[in-house]
Amino acid sequence: MKNSRQTTRTGFLIALSLGMVIAMCSLGSATTGNIVKSDLAGKWLIALHGTTGCGFSDMEADVTIDSSGAGTGTLKTHGQCGDSTLTGQAFNITSVSANGSGKAGLSCGSGCGWDFTIQVSPDRSKFNLVEVASANPGNFVEGLAVRKSPSGHVGLADLTGSWQATIYGMTGCGIGTTVVSFTLNGSGVASNVNETFHTTGCGDGSANTNSFSILSLNADGSGTAGLSCGSGCGWKFNIQVSPDRSTFNLVDVYSANPGNFQAGVAVNNSTVPNIVKANLAGKWQLVEYGQGGCGLASSVVTFTLNAAGVAAGNATETSHSAGCGDTTSIGNTFTIQTLNANGSGTAGLTCGTGCGFTYNIQVSPDRSVINLVDVSSANPGNFQVGTAIHE
Questions:
Q1: Residue range(s) defining the domain that contains residue 160
Q2: Which of 20, 94, 143, 205 has a beta carbon 3.0–4.6 Å from 103's, enabling a disulfide?
Q3: Per-residue confidence at 7, pLDDT binned at 50, 70, 90?
Q4: Residue 244 lies in a domain
Q5: Is the pLDDT of residue 28 over 70?
Q6: Which of 79, 74, 71, 198 is nearest to 139 (CA)?
Q7: For all residues of the chain together, what is the average pLDDT?
Q8: Are residues 299 and 380 in the same domain?
Q9: pLDDT in the model for residue 191
Q10: Is 283 in the same domain as 381?
Q11: Rounded Cα distance, 342 and 357, in Å
């Protein structure tokens, strides 16, 4: 009996080893860290906000990308120049490095287009975008692309839990940044919304009487959501939930809200609360849009965090601004100042002598995405929002 059991165990181990070898041989680039264009094939919803020749605008690009990185889709724009829907627009991944950094282009009609710097997340389900090209001096655009779930099956119950959303936009209070925390129940409804806002027209404040609801949700993760902002006030967003259910983007492209232009990113608090600074060690790319001492600007910041959550003097920022032109600043510091076990916290970025931003942040459960928003009353002229993705 002993020999028989040993033979069975040995056979099992051989079979297991062979299975592991076969599995390892069949692994795609998604698990080896070698990101290529074909990894991005599929359907995506890109939420963008920024300033163009039409003033401030929210934009939504619903695109399908093929294995060569080429794609087409529909671009919806809701801005100060009015609303438009353009079909047949080109979206192309022009280059992508093995670590996920790259370039992409999106057309916006005849003779119109943007050239983005991008960073693809390790799981290939998200990439951020920012326009910092000096060839587009009047364009400052930033956003997040989220893949539509190829297998479907995304349901309201999948979104149960606590979330943090960072939003930038223009409303009746002028330019403003907002951080919103809420907990969704199994029906996609939250009644415990806590909101901190930082605006040009209404100053700084907070509210805890608003509501957030998932209004509709398709099996591929696309849908709509609503956020109230007081009596007779509210926004309706188009959303796209990532396949891992950890992130969704938001964009208001509704003509029913002619004076409201809002877009942002929501990230789930970790359901297994054990996120620490050491989890964030490595290289990151942050894309930002906002208003500061240089006026309207879009920026890309690359930095490497150590195990203590500090990128001491290695943050490089390429900025594209209305007031200061195009600049590159080196030797800056990015610091995770505080970090809770659920991934919420604060961070700071220096931008030269006597210059800096303080952010509220939320780290995604898989530690690959951080959303950031500056709602600090200590920075009355700064309104910044962005998304950092781990290389």
A1: 156-268
A2: 94
A3: very low
A4: yes
A5: no
A6: 79
A7: 88
A8: yes
A9: 80
A10: yes
A11: 23
CB-CB contact of 253 with 76 (8 Å): yes
Q: Which residue has the tokens 């805890």?
A: 208
pLDDT tens digits, 240-249: 999 999 999 9
Query: Does 262 lie in the same domain as 162?
Result: yes
Long-range contacts (CB closer than 8 Å, 24 or more residues apart) made by 63-70: 63/89, 63/91, 65/40, 65/41, 65/91, 65/93, 66/41, 67/37, 67/38, 67/41, 68/37, 68/38, 69/37, 69/38, 69/40, 69/93, 69/94, 69/96
d(CA 358, CA 250): 23
Note whether 224 and 289 are same-domain residues. Answer: no
Per the domain annotation, does 371 fall within a domain? yes
Q: Are residues 80 and 135 in the same domain?
A: yes
Last residue of a domain, one of 268, 295, 313: 268
Let me know whether 289 and 203 are in one domain.
Answer: no
Backbone φ and ψ for 246, nearest 5 degrees, come out as: -95, -15
Of 102, 124, 147, the domain-final residue: 147
DSSP letter at 40?
G
The alpha-helical segments, DSSP class H, found in the chain are 2-25, 29-32
pLDDT in tens, 317-375: 999 999 999 999 999 999 999 999 999 999 999 988 888 899 999 999 999 999 999 99
Q: Which helix (H) or strand (E) holds 348?
A: strand 344-350
Give 145-189 pLDDT, tens digit per residue. 999 999 889 999 999 999 999 999 888 888 999 999 999 999 999
Residue 5's pLDDT band (cuts 50, 70, 90) = very low
Domains in the chain: how many in total?
A: 3
Q: What is the CATH number of the domain that holds 354?
A: 2.40.128.120
Q: Is residue 1 part of a domain?
A: no
Tell me, yes or no, whether 304 and 284 share the same domain. Answer: yes
Asked if 269 and 343 touch (Cβ cutoff 8 Å), the reply is: yes
Q: Is residue 22 part of a domain?
A: no
Residue 221, number of CB atoms within 10 A of its CB: 26
Residue with the two structure tokens 């995506």: 44
Q: CA angle 286-129-290, nearest 5°?
A: 65
Mean pLDDT of 114-134: 95
Same domain for 160 and 102: no
